[in-house]
Amino acid sequence: MNPSHNFCGSHEHDLSRRSFLGGLSAVGAGLLGTSGAVNTFAADGLNAALKKGNKRVILLWLAGGASQLETWDPKPGVPTGGPFADIPTDIPGVHISELMPKMAKRMKHSCLIRSLNTKDGGHGGGADLMLRGRRDEPTLKYPDLGAVVAKELGRMDSQVPDYVNFYTSTEGRGSAKTTPGFLGARYGAINLHDGKKLSLPNIEKLDSITKGDHEARADLRNFLSSRFDQGRGLSAVKSHAAAYARVHGLMSCEKLFDISDEPQHIRDMYGPTQFAEQTIMARRMVEAGVPFVRVSRAWWDSHGQNFETHLEMVPELDRVLSALIDDLKQRGMLEDTLVVTMGEFGRTPKINGSLGRDHFATAWSASLHGGRTVPGAVYGKTDAHGNRVVEGEIGAGEMFATILEAAGIDHTREYHVGARPIPLVNPGIKPVTEVIA
User: How far is CA 395 from CA 189, 283, 343, 426, 429, in A?
Assistant: First the structure.
């Protein structure tokens, strides 16, 4: 690992309760949490525009950079291939690593991107690029994928968060920071670093207040607010009420983290690990209306003992991802929920002296499942040794645009910062239409 990377683990970048509520209070002025920077619309019109068929996104973030050669693009039988074989999938002619037998039976619900060349092999720079689709400008900070999805697919009257980020490991947390950028705190992530609690100070209900009292207070506030609103119809009053309802909803979200009421066969299907449990929570959240959830699994940075690392972590990913696909399908949610697996880069075909693979952003893979993807599609190709892309090369911007379109979001949309139009992706960037249904 490069010692120059600063995995500070600092909470300074997390969304504070004050900034979150500050974003909500902006609604009271008839705007939607952009700190006055982004042009917005009245609440009623915004709700109508944002109600888009309950589309949702779950990002399984493979922090540190998983090896494409041990997952989606194996190269058995060559010096760079490593010790693992490939296996056929339920899509004729498509093979993946033998470490993923469950996903091999579910490729009909999946599509692969095998031709990423993102050109940044640094943890921080690579993560920024993949999560934002482009570089920040000196005077303009771009929102990450979760913030964009939260704005496009979220609803102002929702009582659940718009963007939840699980990152409980310390490794790599500082290089995969969430940011709403110019969208403002209203679309920032609610970060969960201890696994099961919202990292918003003072958001939890006090133990001295019973559930009945908590609900009774909310009912009284709603009654008084309704009486006050009669004959006035002020947008500020309605927005203020919506803000209170949202905070009250957040205080009631604890049940989403309690998976004890999940059927045992569902918990067994995902497995006993923390990654598995958090992915179940992610499914519960999107089912409850959360537009975007990121679950990070660290640490894939296998500079040494790459094969032992992947022998441990890839089967876990295989189990969790296949369980999530089955779970969403059984609930009728797979077509409306896009599941993405990717990290900041892949790993080198060359095997180093420590039997590891180093950072590699030149020819690597990601996967998409459900949503508006073409089932069983495989886009792009690398050479026989995995050293370079020989067909269908794309960068981080194209991947970002593809994810947006697969989630049902028009990648050509624009925001405005002041009078300046800001497109969702840089000019000239297009999605991979071959994988979009």
Answer: 25, 29, 14, 12, 9
> Residue 338: enclosing H or E segment and its boundaries?
strand 337-342
Tell me how far apart the alpha carbons of residues 184 and 150 are, in angstroms, rounded to a whole number. Answer: 12
Q: Which residue has the tokens 């995902």?
A: 270
Average pLDDT over residues 136-143: 96
Alpha-carbon distance of 234 to 352, in angstroms, equals 66
The residue written with tokens 């590891």 in the block is 356
Phi/psi of residue 319, nearest 5 degrees: -70, -45
Q: Supply the pLDDT for residue 426.
A: 97
pTM here is 0.82
Spell out the alpha helix ranges (H) of 302-371.
Answer: 306-330
Q: What percent of the chain has pLDDT over 90?
A: 69
Does residue 282 register a pLDDT over 80? yes
With vertex at residue 72, the alpha carbon angle to CA 71 and CA 73, rounded to the nearest 5 degrees, is: 105
Tell me if residue 9 falls in helix, strand or coil: coil
Q: What is the CATH number of domain 17-204+252-435?
A: 3.40.720.10
Band (pLDDT 50/70/90 cuts) for residue 41 is very low
The DSSP symbol for 28 reads G
Gap between the Cα atoms of 276 and 299, Å rounded = 15
- Sequence ranges of the domains in the chain: 17-204+252-435
Is the pLDDT reported for residue 285 higher than 70?
Answer: yes
